[in-house]
Amino acid sequence: MATRHKIPGSPWRAYIESALFANSVRKTTMAELYRLAIKQPEVVAASEPMYKPEQFGLPKNAKILVSNDGGIVGRTARARRLVREIGKDRDKFLGLLGEAIYNLNRREGLWLEGIIGLHPNFMVKAHLLSPATDAKNMLDWGLNFTPWMKPWTDLYKKSRVLDEPDIIILADPEWSHPEFPNGLVIIDEMQNCIAILGLRYFGERKKGTLTLAWTIGVRQNMVACHGGIKKIGNKPSVAVFGLSGSGKSSITNSHDHAGTLKKDEKVTVIHDDAFLIDLQNDFSVALEPSLFDKTDAVEFDDPDIKYFYSAQNVAITELPDGSKKLVCADIRNENGRCIKSRDMFNHTNFCERPGMIIWLQKDTSLPPISKVNSVGLAVAMGASLSTMRAKGVENVDPKELEKLVIEPFANPFRVHPLLEDCMQFKKLFKLGTECYIMNTHAFGLPDNLIDIPRELSLSIVTELLRGTIEWREWKAFQGLLLPKNGKELFGDDYDKKYKPTRESDYLRFLRDRMQDRITYLSNKRDLEYDMDSAFIDPLVAARTVIDQILHPI
Q1: CB atoms within 10 A of CB 238
Q2: Is 244 left (phi over 0), alpha (psi -120 to 50) or beta?
Q3: CA–CA separation, 393 vs 407, rounded Å?
Q4: Which of 96, 343, 437, 502 is buried deepest, with most CB atoms within 10 A?
């Protein structure tokens, strides 16, 4: 077995694990969950067929099931509480958890088992406990990860044994408490368990599971990655990191890079959202076999729908012939989602460690592409990854969506200390992985922005992999390099639009953005004791150079 049986090592684990064995709980299968979900009051069975349902033990004529969650169709980060940070409120939250489990166990409960990780060196058994009334979310969890059934269980039995207990996820969307109107998520990452209370959105279950899997990976000397990874031809793999809306999935899943790839430059996708890099054994492994993707670009009767397993928060319409069809393109609401197969493109479950890392940043002070030429700065730019939140993806105040935010390594689901991620990425870069920064949003001062089209971003990735970009020093940003032949590769107007100037207004703007990064990381160091000066100093050195240009002695 890949995980060991362990006696619960905390009251949190003891509460959650014990809930599995109540008289009201029974183990379930994907087939039973489908039968329950199709009868669930708020679920709609579309006329479009589910993609290859037999692999999950479902009927050959199974349909795509659609669930809609009400007013909240994104993640609610403010509901999260980490056990290691609860402190003096420990007894209060243990009491809340105990009451939540008591009330859950008074109802019919279902227990679904699954596997997280698609490489025999990293496979973790996982358990999901929910009320029977939440069968659709449980079905989606099984479709997104690997359900406990052949052929996956055969591989699991042969996998490397990890000194870790199984993952347990307890989820009750019907829980409510006046003190927590936005729900409550309690995470004990050291004991690999999580309770998700009062939240309907499937993404909470997916990301909660991944949070625990990433944390296990870090304890196994791996790099936790919220990003996409792919191979093109026989070139080293490339990994891109960014929040939803940054272009992470578009870049990872593109089969032709806007027509810039040649026929012999075949794309192989590992995953577009979550993976681990094993530093000791030199491999990168996907954690889930399916894709949980936005449907904002899916048109009516889109051919891609044939690859769908399930959908959430999308509309349904009935045609004159009585068929019920999906209506995506975010017409009903923002952040419509689907779970779909990677069979829509060439894919594999693992590859070697990436030859290059790309930080996708929505920072308008930065040009479309730059290369980092030092390990310290590569980590610092990842730890201070600047972006804008995608609309609808998270349940936040609309005003917050307009602000530039820093999300270290584009992973808002990290629960282990940030410094651990910094040290792991430092090891990766010291092994020879190259680092690049791509701005996928717009470039320039706030009142004079020039858009960076998706086609340009894709063509940049093509040329990075071919190794055709020639680099020159960016004198105003110590440690970064700029394309020397951008005009030849990306069009006559590339330098005119995107070449950083030495005008004082721009340099002050660039300096302010650097200072934002420095301030963020310094607060992590001084207030949270979760950062090292070694990862701040390269940014301070770069800011000092700009100060000298603006104010020469």
Answers
A1: 23
A2: beta
A3: 15
A4: 437
Q: Which residues of the chain have pLDDT under 50?
A: 1, 401-402
Query: Tell me, what's the pLDDT at 272?
Result: 94
3-state SS assignment for residue 506: helix
What would the 3-class secondary structure string for 360-382 be? EECCCCCCCEEEECCHHHHHHHH
CA distance 389 to 246: 9
Which tens digits make up the pLDDT trace of 356-408?
A: 999 999 999 999 999 999 999 999 999 999 987 655 566 655 555 445 789 99
Residue type, 265: E
Are 117 and 185 in contact by the 8 Å Cβ rule? The answer is: no
State the DSSP string of 277-320: EETTTTEEEES-SEEEEE-TT--TT-GGGGGEEEEES-EEEE-T
pLDDT of residue 401: 45
The pTM of the full predicted model, rounded to 2 decimals, is 0.94
Which pLDDT belongs to residue 6?
Answer: 86
Q: How far is CA 210 from CA 224, 264, 276, 397, 499, in A?
A: 10, 34, 11, 25, 39
Instruction: Return the SS3 of 516.
Output: helix
CA distance 430 to 277: 14
Nearest CA-CA partner of 3 in 207, 198, 208, 164 = 164
Query: Is the backbone of residue 479 left (phi > 0), alpha (psi -120 to 50) or beta?
Result: left
User: Is 409 in contact with 226 (CB distance < 8 Å)?
Assistant: yes
Three-state DSSP state, 489: helix
Residue-level pLDDT at 1? 47
Q: Which of 418, 399, 381, 391 is nearest to 513 (CA)?
A: 381
CATH 3.40.449.10 fits 11-42+78-220, yes or no: yes
Pairing between strand 450-451 and 442-443? antiparallel
pLDDT confidence of residue 398:
55
Could you tell me what percentage of the chain is helix, strand and coil, using 3-state DSSP and rounding each to the nearest 5? 35, 25, 40
Q: Which residues contact 430 (CB under 8 A, 6 or more apart)?
A: 375
Q: Which helix (H) or strand (E) holds 222?
A: strand 222-225
Strand partners, 292: 339
Domain boundaries, the chain: 11-42+78-220, 224-289+349-506
How far apart CA 545 and CA 549 sit, in angstroms, is: 6
Token reading at 91: 């007894």
Quote the distance between the C-alpha of residue 26 and its chain's center: 31
Alpha-carbon gap, residue 248 to 290, rounded angstroms:
16
CATH fold group of domain 224-289+349-506 = Phosphoenolpyruvate Carboxykinase; domain 3 (3.90.228)
